Amino acid sequence: MDPTKEGINTTPHNMDLRGDRLYTSWYDGGVKIHDVSDPGRPELLAWWRAPRRWSFWTAQYATDEFFVASSHTRGHYTHDGAPFAFPNRASSGIRRR
User: Is residue 37 part of a domain?
Assistant: First the structure.
């Protein structure tokens, strides 16, 4: 994987820890929720990404129903982004790479 801005930039940043859940954004790698009740073995609960279209700046707990993430158009670090709301629950459709 190419970690440069020309590649798929996947650095975790601007996280939010709420109870046993860690909400993370990964630039071009999407947003994730991890169960960190055992910090030595974090478990990926949910992952959403559209790396060719969006790049995420932050992921934050909002309510027990959803979490929010701010984004911008991939490759255009401008104000052309959008706010997103995601279900605050585990997802069964996680593809691991």
Answer: yes
Question: What is the pTM assigned to this prediction?
Answer: 0.79
Number of separate domains in the chain: 1
Yes or no: say if 58 and 14 are a contact pair by the CB < 8 Å rule. yes
33 φ, ψ to 5°? -120, 130
Q: Tell me, what amino acid is at 11?
A: T
- Amino acid present at 94: I
* Contact (CB, 8 A) for 91 and 45: yes
Residue 24, domain member (yes or no): yes
Dihedral through CA 23, CA 96, CA 56, CA 68, nearest 10?
-40
pLDDT at 35 over 50: yes
For residue 49, the enclosing domain spans 13-87
Average pLDDT over residues 41-69: 89
